[in-house]
Amino acid sequence: MAFTASILALLAKVLSGANVRWLDVQPDTCQRVYFANHTSHLDALVLWSCLPREIRLMTRAVAARDYWEGGAVRRHIARSFNVLLIDRENIKVHQSPVEIMIREIGKRYSLIVFPEGGRTAGDDMGEFKSGLYYLAKKRPDLELVPVYMENLNRVLPRGEVLPVPLLSCITFGPPMWLEAGEPKTHFLARARQAVRRLKDLK
């Protein structure tokens, strides 16, 4: 699996032509939640591949079970880079996605999440769903690192199966945390703005 993961990381970098920028933040093996905009099925793999190898080994992307279990190839890819699959449809009362994430990461793994939920078609982002807020509330020790992913929707356009090699840019921004007593709506708007701000920093 480790060899397959290395090959996948290399292919993702080549196909996406990813230019990686770390702005006011440095790669670190501390536990983090990388939260990003979502426009392509390649987002999770490309973001994961842009992390240094020692950090990739300790980072799990959160993705939709219905997509990544839709065929033998996708299942193999998901297993190879240790994706944390979440059932978006059959959610149980005492088995919420946030509780599953917290249980699975323990005190070791970082996460890659896409707070919009589904992919967006345009350049603007959708509203953030509440999962990021509850993650921050239940695990206030986690660094929350905003990430803006540019051009991934053109590398693998909606409805296409094969990616088109293009240049993209992956920008990591300064960490943030849930502030004491901060309302959910305020935090989610602040987190969304933290990602949008990176889009304008050329």
Task: Give an overview in words.
The protein has 202 residues and is an alpha/beta fold. Helix content is 38%, strand content 18%. A 7-stranded mixed beta sheet has the order 1-7-6-2-5-3-4, sandwiched between helices. The radius of gyration is 16 Å and the shape is globular. The mean pLDDT is 84.
Key features of this structure:
single chain; 202 residues; globular
Topology:
Layout lengths: L1 H15 L1 E5 L9 E5 L6 H7 L3 H4 L2 E6 H4 L3 H9 L3 E3 L10 H9 L4 E4 L17 H8 L4 E8 L1 H4 L12 E5 L11 H16 L3
Parallel strand pairs: 1-7, 2-5, 2-6, 3-4, 3-5
Antiparallel strand pairs: 6-7
Helix pairs in contact: 1-2, 6-7
Structure in a nutshell:
By secondary structure, the protein is α/β, with parallel strands linked by helices. It has helices at residues 2-16, 43-49, 53-56, 65-68, 72-80, 97-105, 131-138, 152-155, 184-199; strands at 18-22, 32-36, 59-64, 84-86, 110-113, 143-150, 168-172.
- Backbone CA Rg: 16 Å
Helix-residue proportion: 25-40%
Strand content: 15-25%
Strand order of the largest sheet: 1-7-6-2-5-3-4
Oligomer: single chain
Label the structural class: alpha/beta
Query: Number of DSSP helices?
Result: 9
Poorly predicted tracts of residues: none
Order of helices and strands: HEEHHEHHEHEHEHEH
Q: Care to count the β-strands?
A: 7
Rounded mean pLDDT score = 84
Largest sheet: 7 strands, mixed
The termini sit apart by: 36 Å
Rough outline = globular
